[in-house]
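Treating backbone geometry as a discrete language has practical consequences that deserve illustration. No coordinates are needed to read the tokens, only the vocabulary itself. For completeness, the protein is quoted in full, as a sequence line and a line of structure tokens:
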Amino acid sequence: MSQSPRRRNPLIVPFFILVPSLIIIGLGIVLIRGDQGQVSSGMAPTFRLPLYDGGVFDLEAQRGKVVLINFWASWCGPCRSEAAELNAVWDTFRNRDFAMVGIGYLDNERDARAFLAEFGVEYPTGHDDRSVISRAYRIRGVPETFILNRRGEIAHVIIAPTTISVLRPLIEQLLAEDVQP
């Protein structure tokens, strides 16, 4: 009895080429995205943020001041817990060489305005339309707080709700530095 040669499945060769190729592509994407982690040092990305009160916060115009940038959302429980603390920071430092801005993240205007009213937020606050600023700072969630020195460099990043007892010494240290912008 003669045996006929075994026929190979025509999909085996493409399978052994396609699967390793997809693995290599996937690893490449992971490695590339890994290089795009949190912005934690160097010059802060500049931006102009339309504010809920109708003004504009221009980060470049704040050069020479210590700047606190807080990313928040009305739906964020930890953001609610830090709201009074951030108000206290603003009340403490607003009359010094200090600027502060709240940047609403993935929120709608109605809910954001209700949040601001509920917590009596007085510092400049606006909405990050199309998440342009959030992407520039590569935030991963809210709340996130960035503190910039007078030169516009990122000095501190806090990825969690924060308090005035944490922020006060950081801000005071930066205000005490005699640094030309």
User: Anything to note?
Assistant: Residues 12-34 form the longest helix (23 residues).
